[in-house]
Amino acid sequence: MNNAAASACIAGIGHTSIGARLERSAWSLQAESVRNAVADAGLSPNDVDGLITEPGYTQGVFDGITPHFLRLGAMLGLDPRYTYSEVIGGASCVAMVQRAAMAIAAGLCSVCVCVFGDALSTASGTWEQGRGDDAAFGLFGAPGIHALATQRHMALYGTLPEHLGAIAVSQRHHAGLTPHAQHRESLTMNDYLASRHIVEPLRLLDCCLISDGAGAVVVTSTERARDLPQPQVQLVGFGQAHNLSSLANPDYLTELPAKRSGASAFDMAGLQPADVDVAELYDCFTIVVLLQIEDYGFCAKGEGGAFVSDGNLGLTGALPTNTAGGLLSEGFGAGMFHIIEAVRQLRGECGARQVRDAEIALVSGHGLGMNTHATLLLQKV
Amino acid sequence: MTQPGSRAAGPPSTTERPLPRPDPVTQTFWKACDQHTLRYQHCPICEHDWLPASVVCPRCWSDETMWVEASGAGTVFTYAVYRRAYHPAFKPLIPYAVAVIELAEGPRLISNVVDVPVEEIHVGMEVRLTFIDAGTATLPVFRPAKAGE
Hints:
The complex is a heterodimer of chains A (about 375) and B (about 150).
Chain A: E1 8-15, H1 26-40, E2 50-54, H2 68-75, E3 82-85, H3 92-105, E4 111-119, H4 141-157, H5 161-176, H6 189-194, E5 197-200, E6 202-203, E7 212-221, H7 222-225, E8 233-242, H8 258-269, E9 278-280, H9 286-295, H10 304-309, H11 326-329, H12 336-347, E10 360-367, E11 372-380
Parallel strand pairs in A: 2-3, 2-4, 9-10
Antiparallel strand pairs in A: 1-7, 4-7, 5-6, 8-11, 10-11
Helix pairs in contact in A: 5-9
Chain B: H1 27-34, E1 39-42, E2 49-50, E3 66-69, E4 73-82, E5 96-103, E6 108-113, E7 126-134, E8 137-144
Antiparallel strand pairs in B: 1-2, 1-3, 4-5, 4-7, 5-6, 7-8
């Protein structure tokens, strides 16, 4: 393969504990996850020459001018050859790993740390703000736009609350097998159906958790990764696609850019959906998992409801999905925990939740309402 | 004038809702609303019709955009019912319906469906334009179409 992806590996992973309230600053969480990831890669701070960050909700741009990477880089004492803060919402973490691979392939850096961390318990509800003039009509927060998508999908394809519930229940089961998950207690379909509506048709249990926690990965060249201690997990394909025309696009609410992003990634890797052993799909809301299963081609458009209800998302199912619980149950990591879990599955480190013979993983990111999407295909070497 | 909401308008809100902030791109749209007309943009070069406002035709990038008055007829493309308030001004209005309305002429916009219990709203529902006063702004919202309308 003659592409940037083929030359990069995820050589280290690290995260903090994940919880509703950790009483720590986002900076402290980020620094710990970076330290853990670099140590996991068998490297030291002096080896890091690339830093890419996802600013999170409580941080972003400071004093109107200072971007996130500048302050985090200062605290970590880094003078890297490459740096950036990625701001495409929930697609950022996957996009950061892609950017790292491209920077490494271009010779701009050789050991690039990608980090997301936040202390949402300290946030003042930035996700509750409306976007532009739509707030005048009471359209607030991510649940609103995803509820609009859910209602449209239900009307077109007969998707039911029980279909969404099957996703929440399956992921909670996986979280129960994940020692660090935020919500490990059992969840039944009755529990799901009894949970209150937030923005109908979405219930509380359709929505991701609000968490304190951080995660980081170390991306390096395949050549360098060979000399490092961890089993090699290689990037074999990636892609992005975005829907910026929003309401003007007739499929905006029922077909994600995942369709195009996935096609790029599968094409780059020379793989197809049937080759995927584990899927770590961005799941800010249950509906997003269902849409992606259709848009990535794991089933036909409109058949996502039946697919997720047949046990296909379980650890021994056709498409083991969000094997640590995802944003719905493991905790809100903006997609970074999805990447970390994919690496763990491919390394075979997952214990009770290990998917047998996992060799190829798909990781996705979805963000800014229904607008941005990024895909990563990882393979055990 | 009707408040967005369902069975009955709630008590008047003590907190002002967020209002549109017209800018050079959107001010024609909002000024038309103040005069109780809904306008969308049209490209005489490629015949494209669209909302929300743009500085060029989003299809052919022509500068020759013009504003056209909508008939006010539309359908519910999709909707969502807020059961919790994300902003104090909307607390008395719960449950209220936010909808994507597809105008008969094609463009879509975010709006509210009013004058109907939220349980009766459905995708594909025929609706008609009306306006509500929201402080210093006038908002275009939609009510169910009457028989034969």
